[in-house]
């Protein structure tokens, strides 16, 4: 028996989301993903003074705000040719890491884990413990995580004035120099967050987690104390529920590289990981195209973002979402923490993905491993600051220039493409992480990453908002407001 | 007090900011303040059908709706259809849901400048025909109309800001829960006076530079940002420099200008955000309540009297000249 189910509103994703499911014999056979809201940021930016982008783009998204700022600042810096002094590089990386790690924390404790407290799981042996830790607005660890997040974001208060929507991130660096005494206080805040992660999230030192180099090592670590720390509890329930069988990705992941260093390298390397080849290939941003065939947007040709077009067209035949379909060399890719961990060669994530691919289990695992890997980096960057050396270089943007700004948001690869003519923005195009992950079908009819990942998902009799579908959707940590922008 | 929180044409940043409220236990703080979150997009378990049932129950009076919080602007386009945001799973425009729920609510709170005035979403060509709940920019009206009055006897409470300070939202909700919020607690733009009766300038750490018109010339400079950098802190209504953000932050402390994000129309200032518009070398936007002639006279006097220390530090990113140490008891 086949049926069609419209699922939404989804919450605990940033923004509004609807998923249309065709179901037969208790499985999803086809899915269509609808990003239901359009605001038109690319249209807003056209005609503005270029630096106005620094005010406007963070407001695309309240959860990826710093990431949007960084992409815009880099696009304008690319257009002007300004270089950022090392202090500016480090402080911007600190702000980016502050947001990205907080987002990983919010995803795990507030967005993803509460679904395991649903009554459908009441018979499972781990249920009572999951409920105690993760129940929405009540779980002890979730509440502690919100408190830890609040303290952690005080780093943004100092470096960025506030979060979200800072303006301290400029093309030439940071508008906020750090004094030596402030660095000491910031280091104390990092250590405070480290203590939360080591006590509550991992029940282990971060370095021990980051050093896990295979699934066998992970399993030994897990078996030693299966309920200690929230990562182990997640592993317990993931194994029990077979989360590695849910939400298989497209087999290709994209990272633009995270935390660019003063020498131009990335702390987490860029690259396209191919599951079938088992290796990383370089990123060719020239091979990106956005296809609006199934979006309520004008234009049928797949365009590179430097030539992109965004114009609403509500009566577009075949349209079912406001999101375009980005493709890399014509192919669907997945992006996010898992892509960063694969591209940067983290052995545990490579081993797990080699065994079972990108799926609900490996996506969440990659985020937690990233938390453990990046927090120690923030300590190094703070130590590397040279107070009294410059944090900012002044720049002069030509009246006519083009620029590209690439970065990694918590949710994955984010790119801004800007064209300036006669001193004003002529064109501004944004390709956000969830634009990739939650893309609609392209002209060839190939479904996007989530659409394909939902195929085969189990639907229990009587379910109107299937719990397996919720796990798969949330495993991507979607940001719908970024998706369409 | 039952609170329902919906998001539409915004970024969700006011919710993210709310979670930065200064408390050791966020849910406990709400609970102890008598606030029951019926549903919040980032915090609640209910999804899909469970949520639609709740919305229907609130709309139809089966569940008491004490406060409707709306975050994000209201997207009326295209052509008044509201189709730029259809609430997922319902086949209905979000503006229809908001109208129906506002009619059922005792109080309606616009969380953030998008929900209050239209905000960033309404900037430039405003292709989505975005507006606020009861304002369209600085004109009363918006989605619900200038005459809208919630059952509780108040118009839409405009907790404006981009984003809102968590304290503004929490204080408003707690005052409503305690029945300690009345019409005269609102300023002429229906913003809570507890934060809107102050200026961002109050408590600004750059005040000595302001006094002497020792001005920043580029980002990272320590000087006052009013003369060159587009800062509207002397005009903008908010307590940002006395009620700090994320610990010890504020825009001016973060190294950048106040863009007056609590004011209607801030998104279209008519000049580049990072530059102060001037006429004959004098900023067009003068400090609130200050006559122009006085400002010009004081500015020229104070500029000529600027100590070397203040002048040198104003264009540096750290203190290059420390205050003199005097070896006598200070008088």
Please explain how this structure is put together.
The complex is a heterodimer of chains A (485) and B (331). Chain A has 485 residues and is an alpha+beta fold. Chain A has one domain: Cytochrome-c3 Hydrogenase, chain B, CATH 1.10.645.10. Chain A has helices at residues 41-45, 53-56, 65-80, 86-112, 127-134, 140-152, 154-160, 180-201, 206-210, 215-223, 230-241, 337-343, 347-356, 360-384, 433-437, 449-454, 467-475, 480-484, and strands at 2-7, 17-24, 27-35, 169-170, 173-174, 252-255, 258-260, 266-268, 271-274, 279-281, 288-291, 325-328, 334-335, 401-409, 412-421, 424-431. In chain A, a hairpin with a 2-residue loop joins β14 (401-409) and β15 (412-421). In chain A, α8 (180-201) packs antiparallel against α14. Chain B has 331 residues and is α/β, with parallel strands linked by helices. Chain B has helices at residues 13-18, 26-32, 49-59, 94-104, 113-117, 166-177, 193-196, 207-211, 292-304, 308-314; strands at 2-7, 36-39, 67-71, 74-75, 86-87, 92-93, 107-111, 130-131, 135-136, 139-140, 157-159, 278-279, 282-283. A five-stranded parallel sheet of chain B has the order 2-1-3-7-11, sandwiched between helices. A two-stranded antiparallel ribbon of chain B has the order 4-8. Chain B has a two-stranded antiparallel ribbon with strand order 5-6. In chain B, β12 (278-279) and β13 (282-283) form a beta hairpin. The longest helix of chain B is centred in the last third of the chain and has 13 residues, at 292-304. Chain B is elongated and about 75 Å long. Chains A and B meet through α1, α2, α4, α6 and α7 of A and α1, α2, α3 and β5 of B.
Mean pLDDT of chain A: 97
Main CATH class of chain A? Mainly Alpha
The arrangement of helices and strands of chain B along the chain is EHHEHEEEEHEHEEEEHHHEEHH
CATH-defined superfamily of the largest domain in chain B: NADH:ubiquinone oxidoreductase-like, 20kDa subunit
Class computed from helices, strands and strand pairing of chain B:
alpha/beta
Q: Pairing-aware structural class of the strands and helices of chain A?
A: alpha+beta
CATH architecture of chain A: Orthogonal Bundle
Write down the CATH topology of the largest domain in chain B: Rossmann fold
In total, how many domains does the architecture of chain A comprise? 1
Give, in spatial order, the strands making up the sheet with the most strands of chain B: 2-1-3-7-11
Sheet having the most strands of chain B: 5 strands, parallel
Helix content of chain A: 40-55%
Distance between the termini of chain B: 55 Å
CATH architecture of the largest domain in chain B: 3-Layer(aba) Sandwich
Instruction: Report how far apart the termini of chain A are.
Output: 38 Å
Largest interface by Cβ-Cβ < 8 Å:
A-B, 87 and 82 residues
């Amino acid at each position: 028996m086949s049926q069609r189910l419209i699922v939404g509103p989804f919450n605990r994703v940033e923004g509004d989301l609807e998923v249309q499911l065709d179901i037969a014999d208790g499985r999803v056979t086809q899915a269509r993903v609808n990003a239901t809201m359009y605001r038109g940021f690319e249209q807003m930016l056209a005609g503005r003074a270029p630096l106005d982008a620094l005010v406007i783009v963070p407001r695309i998204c309240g959860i990826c705000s710093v990431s949007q700022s960084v992409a815009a600042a880099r696009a304008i810096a690319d257009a002007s040719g300004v270089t950022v002094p090392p202090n500016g590089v480090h402080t911007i990386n600190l702000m980016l890491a502050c947001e990205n790690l907080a987002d990983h924390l919010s995803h795990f404790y507030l967005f993803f884990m509460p679904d395991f407290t649903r009554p459908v799981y009441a018979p499972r042996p781990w249920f009572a413990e999951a409920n105690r830790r993760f129940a929405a607005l009540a779980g002890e660890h979730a509440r502690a995580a919100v408190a830890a997040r609040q303290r952690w974001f005080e780093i943004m208060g100092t470096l960025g004035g506030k979060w979200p929507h800072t303006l301290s991130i400029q093309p030439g660096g940071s508008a906020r120099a750090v004094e030596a005494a402030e660095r000491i206080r910031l280091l104390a805040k990092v250590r405070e967050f480290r203590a939360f992660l080591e006590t509550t999230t991992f029940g282990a030192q971060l370095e021990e987690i980051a050093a896990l180099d295979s699934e066998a090592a992970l399993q030994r670590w897990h078996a030693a104390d299966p309920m200690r720390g929230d990562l182990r509890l997640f592993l317990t329930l993931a194994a029990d529920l077979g989360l590695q069988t849910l939400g298989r990705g497209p087999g290709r992941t994209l990272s633009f590289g995270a935390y660019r260093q003063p020498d131009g390298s990335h702390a987490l390397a860029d690259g396209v990981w191919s599951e079938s080849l088992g290796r990383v290939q370089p990123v060719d941003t020239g091979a990106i195209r956005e296809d609006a065939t199934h979006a309520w947007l004008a234009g049928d040709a797949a365009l590179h973002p430097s030539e992109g077009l965004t114009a609403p067209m509500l009566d577009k035949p075949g349209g079912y979402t406001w999101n375009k379909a980005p493709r890399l060399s014509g192919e669907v890719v997945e992006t996010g923490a898992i892509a960063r961990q694969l591209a940067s060669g983290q052995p545990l994530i490579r081993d797990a993905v080699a065994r079972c691919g990108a799926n609900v289990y490996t996506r969440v695992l990659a985020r937690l491993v990233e938390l453990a890997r990046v927090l120690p980096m923030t300590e190094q960057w703070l130590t590397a600051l040279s107070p009294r050396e410059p944090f900012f270089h002044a720049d002069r943007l030509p009246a006519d220039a083009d620029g590209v700004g690439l970065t990694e948001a918590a949710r994955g690869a984010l790119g801004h493409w800007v064209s300036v003519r006669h001193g004003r923005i002529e064109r501004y195009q944004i390709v956000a992480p969830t634009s990739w992950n939650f893309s609609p079908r392209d002209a060839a009819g190939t479904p996007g990453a989530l659409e394909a990942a939902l195929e085969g998902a189990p639907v229990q009799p009587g379910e109107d908002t299937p719990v397996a579908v919720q796990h798969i959707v949330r495993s991507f940590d979607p940001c719908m407001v970024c998706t369409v922008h | 007090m039952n609170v329902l929180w919906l998001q539409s044409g915004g970024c969700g940043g006011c919710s993210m900011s709310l979670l930065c409220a200064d408390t050791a236990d966020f849910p406990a703080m709400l609970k102890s303040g008598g606030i029951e979150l019926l549903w919040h997009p980032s915090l609640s378990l209910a999804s899909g059908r469970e949520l639609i049932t709740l919305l229907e129950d609130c709309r139809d009076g089966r569940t008491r709706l004490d406060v409707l919080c709306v975050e994000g602007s209201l997207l009326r386009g295209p052509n008044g259809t509201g189709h730029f945001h259809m609430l997922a799973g319902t086949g209905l425009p979000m503006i229809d849901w908001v109208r129906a729920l506002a009619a059922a609510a005792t109080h309606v709170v616009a969380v953030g400048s998008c929900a209050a005035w239209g905000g960033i979403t309404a900037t430039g060509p405003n292709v989505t025909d975005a507006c606020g709940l009861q304002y369209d920019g600085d004109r009363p009206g918006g989605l619900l109309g200038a005459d809208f009055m919630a059952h509780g006897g108040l118009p839409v409470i405009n907790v404006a800001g981009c984003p809102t300070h968590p304290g503004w939202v929490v204080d408003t909700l707690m005052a409503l829960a305690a029945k300690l919020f009345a019409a005269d607690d609102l300023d002429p733009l229906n913003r809570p006076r507890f934060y809107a009766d102050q200026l961002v300038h109050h408590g600004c750490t750059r005040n000595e530079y302001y006094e002497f018109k020792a001005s920043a010339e580029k980002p990272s400079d320590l000087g006052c940002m009013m003369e060159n950098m587009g800062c509207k802190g002397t005009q903008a209504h908010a307590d940002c420099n006395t009620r700090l953000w994320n610990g010890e932050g504020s825009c001016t402390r973060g190294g950048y200008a106040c863009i007056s994000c609590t004011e209607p129309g801030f998104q279209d200032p008519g000049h580049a955000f990072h530059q102060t518009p001037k006429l004959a070398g004098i900023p067009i936007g003068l400090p609130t309540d200050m006559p122009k002639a006085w400002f010009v006279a004081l500015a020229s006097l104070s500029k000529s009297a600027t100590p070397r220390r203040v002048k040198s530090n104003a264009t540096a990113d750290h203190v290059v000249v420390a205050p003199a140490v005097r070896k006598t008891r200070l008088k």
